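Q: Give me a backbone?
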Amino acid sequence: MKFPRIYNLKEIAELIGATYVGPANFPISGCNEIHVVESGDIVFVDHPKYYDKALESEASVVLINKKVKCPQGKALLISKDPFTDFNKLTKHFTPFESTNISISKSAVIGENTRIQPNVFIGNNVLIGKGCTIHPNVTIYDNCKIGNNVTIHAGSVLGADAFYYKKRKDGYDKLLSGGSIIIEDNVDIGALCTIDRGVSANTTIKKGTKIDNQVQIGHDTVIGEKCLIASQTGIAGCVVVEDEVILWGQVGTNSGITIGKGAVILGQTGVTKSVKGGKTYFGTPIDESRKKLKEIAGIKQLIKNQKK
């Protein structure tokens, strides 16, 4: 998430009520999660296990709950609760804007795009040329949709990330300030749900085809010309490289990568990153030939024990 202008360290510290380590005029251009953070950004960390990762990241400013040695060329924001203070930044820079009309006046819709009845299109949505949006589709604020995209009935683009921190009295939600990018020639089936990024974008690249009832989590990137079959669930922060095929009821862990051209057979649990160009099956996941041999071996063992 990039700020509308360059802020300085003192301004951000005052905004969230934190103390700071570094020059008051230290420039800050945005805030992001650790997996997408860039130079000029703030990243937050609230557990010692991840201190080093945050301090050594590309982030220019680390929002942290302990005063530590500041790395050269960086700055610190010291906070009692970085999670809550990161939410303050999201609220400030991407506040929720309500609307009482079905298609926002700030939405831009390209030539020859057909919008069916009962579609909701939020603020600042961009939709390209030659698209078809079927009934009861919901497109939240700031989504960007390319040319020749088809979205079937009942799909929801841009709902919040499923991201919570456990507290003594329940769960706190990490607010979502990112959005969604759908590139050209993408088909999205009926009743699909694609969550927006927490601080960046969830992206579906050109030529990918998605079946009905598919869930795609926050900040995930789906490559070009992928096929994703029904009832697949892809967690947040996943990278699916180009030309991957995910058959029905595949599920993934968060933060993994599925390599280019991989084929994941139905009902597989993708518990770790896998290389491209191979076919996989089972939970925990393994190459399909190896997994099927294991299953056959177990069946034979059981059969022999019954004799």
Q: What stands out?
A: The chain has four helices and 34 strands.
